From TrEMBL:
Residues 739-901 form the Helicase C-terminal domain. The lineage of its organism: Bacteria, Bacillati, Bacillota, Bacilli, Bacillales. This is ATP-dependent helicase. It holds the Pfam family DUF3670. One of its GO terms (molecular function) is helicase activity. PROSITE patterns: HELICASE_ATP_BIND_1 (PS51192), HELICASE_CTER (PS51194). Residues 448-612 form the Helicase ATP-binding domain.
Length: 908
């Protein structure tokens, strides 16, 4: 503690908490707390730096100060009514340290011991005790921060600090000394010189030309000659703050010529130091205002060089270049001269402007390249996809370097890219076993158009809008004539079976092979297997494509398609890197979610479809990720939207144009393969049961069939249900069942898009698995409505779902299949099949009923090669004959042993 005494014999006791910052409180001799405003005027009585305490920071009864402030307050005697005394040993020690540090801050020898290491101020061990050194190091760093300087500048400041200290040049009653920078007059050089003015005047004096090289005492006017030595010393101190200038002659007034580059170096490095220490600096008023001035280049693109009936992206274009500086036009010859002279500040139209020589050089390189290398319209797009603005009968395109103005004759082509309108019509392949809806036909035409123009693309339609059938139509068109190489489709394992079925259904003429499983051809055998089978389409998965990367990368495919392309979103993973290196004549990405969390995911997709279009990832981060994700910049968002728009086709179910063309309800089978574990258990159960069946009576046989049917359905859902194992973690459970993994992924995607879905299952265990996995992976609670749930709770859950309180609702097929109104759902997922179609339809109608205003997408999950797929085919056939034929699963018990064997046997 420290004690203040006043002329009224009042003593204040200061309690000091040494930290960052120091915290100081005061009490009277009786222990009464005293507010800082009563005693801080004595503490700051001589302190001009803080305006006598006006800038001091308070926190309740505490006065806050940095170590630099604490030391500074002891550089002069206190108020003459006040004396300081430490009452405790730690207070006396702290006071002694502050006093010693204050004295050493005035010591010129201090600066001989100061250095800078790794951005920190360091004082040599021999200079003072560790405690004093720590005080001084903190004080110096805080003094630098107060002047907006960094520790890295300390070496350049040491000569000045040693002579002048932190307060800078001492004031003089007769004159003010400073530095002046003047723009070029006749030559290309600037003038940087020492100037003097009278204390009360504003006109600067410099030596006349005849006395410029004379000693300072002879060059000065008589009125200032007595100050010659002081002026000489002050000039030397000022120039010590200008490390970029040449060493001065100490006996003469300083004056030198600077180039444009010297001026920029001075403004960046020296001017800040001069102003930080209060040196008067005179600069041309216009100088800082023109630092952002920029050359504008317009390139009038006059249309294709070769006149053809149709304009394409590979057409050559010709340019008519125009140049301007700050709105003043310059000729091509004047522009070339600017580049050659390497000037940074020039006078145009009566005013000074600053230009960037590196930018000028870059512009000339770009212009020479455009003129000399026969640029096409495609080259323009890849140089920088510009923003569009209509200018009368022209279309104006802007990028950061050049303003391209395209003649109206090219607008039609750009409209096709940007708006996907008026695309060239492509005849739908005769082999397509489906009717394309109008918007799907646009997607098909767009796929073909982009292939013909040599651009990859991302088809990002909403789930359920038919990305698959659009691509299949495209593949039929591409392979309508024999191709040297097949097309490659990479997809998640969980949808591999779906692709097999959809290709078989919609394009039976395409020759399709799957590159999957342990028996697949590898390395050298892979190429020969393709030669032998001559497929049109090769199907593979992300995991296999990553493992067999070298074999797949060795082939130039007719086309390469990534389904669920968000699987390459993590750009640093091996899977993403190897897939982005696949070679194809045309690259296509299919995804309903091109961006899930980060813009880097969009970059990864574009790096696959059009490598280099969104630059290298480092530039993309600087140009888009940082301003958008950190600063939420709307202008950068719009710039990025414009840039990706030509190569991204995105339609949603909420688009008004599409609603008219969509059915109110779409049902879709989602095919999933069995995992090896499921397949082994499935085959074992079938063989064991069929062996028992031969010895049973008719009634026992029917019971065994129904029992086996239930076990097989549980096994198709997940082996843990059949084996009666509990849920552990999503990472352990999901890989054991492609069906469960796909349902969870689909439900999560639906929820993340802001939609809601119902999931129906016949099995309590399956419902719990879905609850646990969705909660673990996506972080939201998933209610499960079963027959045992009380009516009040059931009604409350239905009301909450309708209100949008949770996105996913799992329901027992029997308990949730009737009597509920759940029209908030836009998706219905049937995890397992009920063999009576009427029961499934009743469940679907919980969402698709009166009051539903949105499109409803129904997904029925079927495991390939199992009883689920075979019974689905039988149901389709029998329901076509009579909707009344099937009332329950009892009809299966009437099948013969041979029919049952065919029905239950797993077909790979």
């Amino acid at each position: 503690m420290m004690r203040f005494t006043t002329d009224s014999n009042m003593t204040y006791f200061l309690s000091i908490d040494q930290g960052m910052p120091f915290r100081v409180t005061a009490v009277t001799e009786t222990g009464q707390p005293v507010p800082p405003e009563q005693w801080k005027p004595y503490l700051y009585f001589w302190d001009k730096t803080s305006f006598f305490g006006m800038g001091a920071e308070e926190d309740g009864l505490e006065l806050l100060m940095t170590s630099a402030e604490f030391v500074r307050l002891f550089q002069r005697p206190p108020h003459h009514f006040v004396s300081f005394e430490g009452l405790r040993s730690e207070d006396r020690q702290l006071l002694s340290l502050a006093e010693e540090s204050a004295n050493r801050m005035e010591d010129p020898l201090l600066w001989d011991a100061v250095t800078e290491q790794d951005g920190q101020v360091v004082i040599g061990d021999s200079y003072a005790s560790p405690e004093v050194r720590r005080f001084l190091e903190q004080a110096i760093e805080q003094q630098l921060q107060a002047k907006n300087l960094t520790s890295a500048l300390l070496p350049a400041l040491l000569p000045f600090l040693k002579e002048a200290g932190w307060d800078g040049l001492p004031e003089n009653d007769d004159y003010v000394i400073g530095m002046r920078l003047s723009e070029p007059e006749e030559s290309a050089y600037w003038t940087f010189e020492t100037v003097i003015r009278s204390k009360r005047g504003s006109v600067y004096w410099t030596p006349p030309a005849s006395r410029r090289t004379a000693p300072i005492d002879q060059a000065l006017p008589a009125k200032w000659r007595d100050h010659a030595e002081e002026i000489r010393r002050q000039q030397q101190l000022m120039l010590s703050l200008c490390p970029t200038t040449e060493p001065p002659n100490p006996d003469c007034f300083y004056s030198t010529d600077l180039t444009d580059a010297d001026v920029l170096a001075f403004l960046r490095e020296d001017a800040e130091l001069l102003q930080a220490f209060g040196v008067e600096l005179s600069l041309p008023a216009w100088l800082r205002a023109v630092q952002e001035s920029k050359v504008r280049v317009k390139a009038n693109v006059g249309g294709p060089v070769k006149k053809q009936s149709a304009v394409g992206l590979d057409e050559l274009v010709k340019f008519d270049w125009q140049f301007s500086l700050n709105g003043h036009e310059v000729t091509r010859q004047e522009f070339e001269s600017l580049v050659e002279e390497n000037r940074q500040f020039i006078r145009v139209g009566g005013e000074w402007v600053r230009v960037d020589p590196a930018l000028l050089q870059k512009l000339r390189t770009l212009i020479d390249e455009a003129d000399g290398e026969n640029w096409t319209i495609k080259d323009l797009l890849f140089k920088d996809m510009p923003e569009l603005e209509e200018q009368g009968d022209e279309l104006e395109l802007e990028d950061p370097l050049v303003e391209f103005r395209l003649h109206q004759s090219l607008q039609e082509l750009l409209d096709r890219l940007l708006e996907k309108r008026d695309l060239p019509e492509t005849v739908i392949p005769a082999g397509l076993q489906a009717d394309l809806r109008p918007y799907q036909k646009i997607g098909f035409d767009y796929l073909v158009f982009m292939r013909e123009q040599g651009f990859g693309l991302c088809l990002a339609d909403d789930m359920g809008l038919g990305k698959t059938v659009q691509l299949i139509a495209y593949l039929l068109h591409v392979h309508r004539t024999p191709q040297a190489r097949p097309s490659l489709i990479i997809c998640p394992t969980s949808v591999l079976g779906n692709w097999q079925k959809e290709l078989e259904r919609f394009a039976p003429d395409l020759r399709v092979v799957s590159h999957y499983g342990g028996s697949r051809a590898k390395e050298e055998d892979f190429q020969s297997s393709l030669t032998d089978s001559a497929p049109d389409v090769v199907l593979s998965t992300y995991g296999i494509a990553s493992s067999d990367a070298e074999a797949l990368q060795a082939i130039e495919w007719t086309s390469v398609t990534l389904d669920e392309a968000q699987n390459i979103k993590n750009i640093q993973t091996k899977q993403s890197r190897v897939l982005r290196k696949l070679k194809g004549q045309h690259h296509i990405a299919l995804t309903g979610t091109p961006i899930e969390n980060r813009l880097s995911e969009l970059w990864a997709i574009f790096d696959f479809i059009n490598k280099g279009y969104l630059y290298r990832i480092s530039r993309f981060k600087e140009q888009f990720i940082v301003p958008i994700e950190r600063d939420d910049s709307e202008s950068h968002k719009e710039q990025l939207r414009r840039r990706i728009q030509p190569f991204l086709l995105r339609r949603t179910k909420k688009d008004p144009e599409l609603q008219l063309n969509l059915p109110e309800k779409q049902e879709q089978l989602e095919y999933c393969p069995l995992t090896p574990e499921q397949a082994a258990l499935y085959e074992g159960l079938v063989q064991e049961t069929l062996g028992k069946m031969e010895t049973l009576s008719g009634f026992e046989r029917k019971g065994l069939v129904l029992k086996m049917l239930s076990k097989l359905k549980q096994l198709c859902n997940h082996p843990a249900l059949y084996l009666k194992e509990p849920f552990t973690t999503a990472d352990e459970i999901l890989p054991r069942s492609q069906k469960l993994e796909r349902i969870v992924t689909m439900a999560g995607d639906i929820a993340e898009r802001g939609e809601q879905c119902l999931i129906f299952t016949q099995y309590i265990g399956m419902g719990h698995f879905l609850q646990e996995a969705l909660n673990e992976l996506y972080g939201f609670e998933v209610p499960f409505l079963t027959g045992s749930m009380p009516k009040a709770k059931r009604d409350a859950l239905v009301a909450s779902f309708q209100a949008g309180d949770f996105p996913v609702f799992v329901l027992s097929l029997k308990a949730g299949g009737t009597g509920l109104n759940l029209t908030a759902a836009t998706h219905v997922l049937h995890a397992d099949r009920w063999w009576n179609p009427a029961v499934e339809n009743q469940a679907t109608d919980r969402a698709y009923r009166i009051g539903q205003t949105q499109f409803v997408h129904v997904h029925k999950f079927v495991t390939i090669g199992t009883v689920e797929e075979k019974i689905d085919s039988l149901l389709t056939e029998k329901q076509a004959m009579s909707d009344q034929f099937i009332q329950s699963s009892q009809w299966m018990t009437e099948l013969s042993d041979r029919e049952l064997e065919d029905l239950f046997t797993y077909t790979r």
